[in-house]
């Protein structure tokens, strides 16, 4: 059985996470700012579906994006040069989360519940969670959100209502003063943009170092 976290129970070592399902570490606890920040500083993130208990994960290997390795295709570079999107930071954080939570294709919804939205909106209010947004003609066209600690950015989710909008937002994130972007799990889409897998012990070592360095988002 996986450990069950009471209110003040510390997280178990990430090395004790299950191999199958990959990275499942613990259940229970809460989504308070203190618990969430403690998790991210240890390379742990929450991920659970409606009807499930709160689950905590630290997969091995870990999908990451080094900002300088972002793959800017010729077509995306053309979109950037066209100034088709206005880029903003933190102007519509909750709206970005709700767009990320909306149904996609044949999926009725995502794991981003009202409970998760409330928890991350509070983190945003406290200055720890941020959104990168692509706007077009005065409307939110795409974006992403995540948690920032020091020079680490922990990406949580992204969405597009207009082609390339989320890619442009991710490119803008790569221009910010972060040395490593956590992408959590492998997807072909992220790999196509330059993300790669990193052994968990290397990821945790980077987290330990980078979360101690102060950093500030650019306008």
UniProtKB/TrEMBL annotation:
Keywords: Acyltransferase, Cytoplasm, Transferase. It catalyses: N-terminal L-lysyl-[protein] + L-leucyl-tRNA(Leu) = N-terminal L-leucyl-L-lysyl-[protein] + tRNA(Leu) + H(+); L-phenylalanyl-tRNA(Phe) + an N-terminal L-alpha-aminoacyl-[protein] = an N-terminal L-phenylalanyl-L-alpha-aminoacyl-[protein] + tRNA(Phe); N-terminal L-arginyl-[protein] + L-leucyl-tRNA(Leu) = N-terminal L-leucyl-L-arginyl-[protein] + tRNA(Leu) + H(+). Its EC number is 2.3.2.6. It is found in: Cytoplasm. It holds the Pfam family Leu_Phe_trans. It is an enzyme of class 2 (transferase). It comes from the Bacteria. GO terms for cellular component: cytoplasm. InterPro entries: Acyl_CoA_acyltransferase, Leu/Phe-tRNA_Trfase, Leu/Phe-tRNA_Trfase_C, Leu/Phe-tRNA_Trfase_N. Coiled coil: none annotated. GO terms for molecular function: leucyl-tRNA--protein transferase activity. One of its GO terms (biological process) is protein catabolic process. Belongs to the L/F-transferase family. Functions in the N-end rule pathway of protein degradation where it conjugates Leu, Phe and, less efficiently, Met from aminoacyl-tRNAs to the N-termini of proteins containing an N-terminal arginine or lysine. This is Leucyl/phenylalanyl-tRNA--protein transferase. The lineage of its organism: Bacteria, Pseudomonadati, Pseudomonadota, Betaproteobacteria, Nitrosomonadales.
